[in-house]
Amino acid sequence: MWWNNLKARPATTNASTLATPMIMSLEPRMLFDGAVAATVADAAQADSHAETVAAASIAVAEARALSTEISLAAGSTLFELAGSQATLAEHGLDRHWRNARVHTLHDPVRWKYHAVGNYYLNDEKPPLRGTL
Question: In the predicted model, what is the mean pLDDT of residues 78-98?
């Protein structure tokens, strides 16, 4: 299979190996939302009051919701790109989707969507107890 050939190659980090279609379509969304969340969180830390803390909490919730979608999509796309042979247990590729799914169940994203919607639609701030 095509991924078996990768074991024989030395690890490289040149631009061509990082410019695969899947990475190019998923990574910018993650980087952008992560950067926005970090920027808003930094602003809230510098000037901590109810509005900035709420905005930071919502930005992090948005990034977390997106990371859930992307991690599950990446695991599923792995099988789409690799073909039906990729589903064989001997390759162990199912662990990527399974690990992503376990993490998404541990920190349910449905509450993040609820808090984000409530913030934008009803102007209701998220809870301050850090559970978002």
Answer: 82
Indicate yes or no: pTM above 0.85: no
Encoded amino acid at 95, one letter: R
Contacts of residue 61, defined as CB under 8 A and 6 or more positions apart, other chains included, come to 112, 115, 116, 126, 132
Q: What's the chain's length in residues? A: 132
Contact indicator for 93, 78 with CB cutoff of 8 Å: yes
Closest alpha carbon to 76 in 102, 103, 98: 98
Give 126's DSSP letter: P
The reported pLDDT for the residue numbered 43 is 74
Helices H, strands E: what count in the chain? 5, 0
